TrEMBL record:
CDD domains: IgI_2_KIRREL3-like, IgI_5_KIRREL3. It is a single-pass type I membrane protein. It is found in: Cell membrane. The keyword Cell membrane applies. Residues 5-99, 104-200, 207-287, 292-372, 377-472 form the Ig-like domain. This is Kirre like nephrin family adhesion molecule 3. It comes from the Eukaryota. One of its GO terms (molecular function) is cell adhesion molecule binding. It comes from Oncorhynchus kisutch (Coho salmon). Pfam families: C2-set_2, I-set, Ig_3.
Length: 495
């Protein structure tokens, strides 16, 4: 045994990845004594007997002083300080630090491989890479670009050597799109190229709905097709149609065909589309062309003389319509508005008025109303009847009166007769739709009857009117043209 023995090879500091083999060299040429390997101050065995450590073997040519320590499949427990000692020579190698690197386990993104979120919500992703030595670094990648701003934390495990890493990535709603892939890559010195996993982003949203109506514009009575196109994630589960708020039960798909009438112009058709997140409702009115339809019917009026008469007549139609107010029998346009106002009405304003609406090239409609004017009676005589001497004769007066006359009287000379018979004279009064006809009948005509002035007078609460009538002898020369005149101011003292 040489007392001058020296180490020709000593173990060096080494860094090795767990699972790999490693050899710590120790050569002492000329030394034939006992060699011990020391791990963290404790002998592994005597000489080449390392039976307590099945992965450890002393290798090399013993005769030349080679006592190398071979470790198969390095584990974390091998992370220690090793020495090679020559006992009889009282020599020890320099201490060699064996550093064992442990790659992280495969990273895991919580909620993967598909992360679903509602449209408008931000994205929070958490990736953890566990049991690494040293602690893993984590980066996030999208479309080949690293995403910055992730929060990072690490936790030391009970063995005091390995660490677990957690990284949380926040992305605002405006910074994410459905279908994007986001990668979490974890690396340390044991795996410089890293390990990675990924998730796909699934942005879920309420149905996005478009409701089309074809064709438009359209004449009522024709077929229209409504198509409700929807994009939804998750997919659409239900279509529901309604018109004017009333559900159309017989339609369940994305298309609704119907023959339209005027109501589709004012009552919208709606399509409600549902998916598991909720419903979206969209509605459309149809540009239906239709002729005038009355929406406010004018009412006949009865007004006092001198008052205003106001008629209201409203129509709907499409395209826009024109309104004309006229008096029946006259070609004069009185108004083009819904409202017709007649100021300070006179009795000649009484009559029929027509409100007419026209939708060009589509249709027309009209409504007739009556204006009745309350005022004093107005009397007109019918044509003067001719009479023969000795025969029966009659004269008539026609009375228009609103309100109806309270009293009608015939007077001549000293006689007043309202009804019934007096001597040769009889009065009969008949009411018609246009007014009252009062007839004075005379039997056995005498010459004096042709010289008499006959007065027909009518009264109501507004006043009176009188008509003076003469009887004409048939074939005679006197009064051959007849004679009638009217006045509302004459007053006969004998009444």
């Amino acid at each position: 045994m040489s007392l001058n023995a020296m180490f020709s090879q000593q173990p060096q500091d080494l860094v090795v990845v767990a699972g790999q083999p490693v050899t710590l060299p120790c050569s002492i040429p000329g030394y034939h004594g006992v060699v011990l390997w020391i791990k963290d101050g404790l002998a592994l065995g005597v000489g080449r007997d390392l039976s307590g450590y099945p992965r450890y073997t002393v290798i090399g040519d013993h005769s030349t002083g080679e006592h190398h320590l071979r470790i198969q499949r390095v584990e974390l427990m091998d992370d220690a300080v090793f020495e090679c000692q020559a006992i009889q020579a009282a020599m020890r190698s320099r201490p060699a630090r064996l550093t064992v690197l442990v790659p992280p386990e495969d990273p895991v993104i919580s909620g993967g491989p598909v992360v679903s979120l509602r449209a408008g919500d931000p994205l929070n992703l958490t990736c953890h890479a566990d049991n690494a030595k040293p602690a893993a670094s984590i980066i996030w990648i999208r479309n080949g670009e690293v995403l910055n701003g992730a929060m990072y934390s690490k936790t030391l495990l009970r063995d005091g050597r390995r660490e677990s890493t957690v990284s949380t990535l926040y992305l605002s709603a405006s910074n994410i799109e459905t279908g994007q892939q986001i990668i979490c890559r974890a690396s340390n010195k044991a795996v410089p190229n890293g390990k990675e996993t990924s998730v796909n982003i699934d942005i879920q949203h309420l149905p996005l709905v478009n409701l089309s109506v074809e064709p438009q514009p359209i004449l009522e009575g024709n077929l229209v097709k409504f198509h409700c196109s929807a994009k939804a994630n998750p997919p659409v589960t239900l279509y529901r149609w309604a018109k004017g708020g009333n559900v159309i039960k017989e339609v369940s798909g994305d298309t609704y065909e119907v023959i339209v009438d005027h109501s589709f112009f004012t009552e919208p058709v709606s399509c409600e589309v549902t998916n598991p997140l909720g419903s979206t409702n969209i509605s459309r009115n149809v540009d239906v062309y239709f002729g005038p339809r009355m929406s406010a019917e004018p009412q006949s009026l009865q007004v006092d003389l001198g008052s205003d008469a106001v008629f209201n007549c409203a129509w709907t139609g499409n395209p826009s319509l024109t309104i004309v107010w006229m008096k029946r029998g006259s070609g004069v346009v009185l108004s083009n508005e819904n409202i017709l106002t007649l100021k300070a009405v006179r009795q000649e304003d009484a009559g029929k008025y027509v409100c007419r609406a026209v939708v060009p090239r589509v249709g027309a409609g009209e409504k007739e109303v009556s204006l009745t004017v309350n005022g004093p009676p107005t009397i007109s005589s019918t044509q003067t009847h001719q009479a023969l001497h000795g025969e029966k004769g009659e004269i008539k007066c026609f009375i228009r009166s609103t309100p109806p006359p309270d009293r009608i009287a015939w007077s001549w000379k000293e006689t007043v007769l309202e009804s019934g018979t007096s001597g040769r004279y009889t009065v009969e009064t008949v009411s018609t739709e246009e007014g009252v006809i009062s007839t004075l009948t005379m039997s056995n005509i005498v010459p004096a009857d042709f010289q008499t002035i006959y007065n027909c007078t009518a009264w109501n609460s507004f006043g009176s009117d009188t008509e003076i009538i003469r009887l004409k002898e048939q074939g005679g020369s006197q009064g051959s043209t007849g004679s009638t005149f009217s006045t509302s101011t004459l007053w006969w003292p004998w009444f």
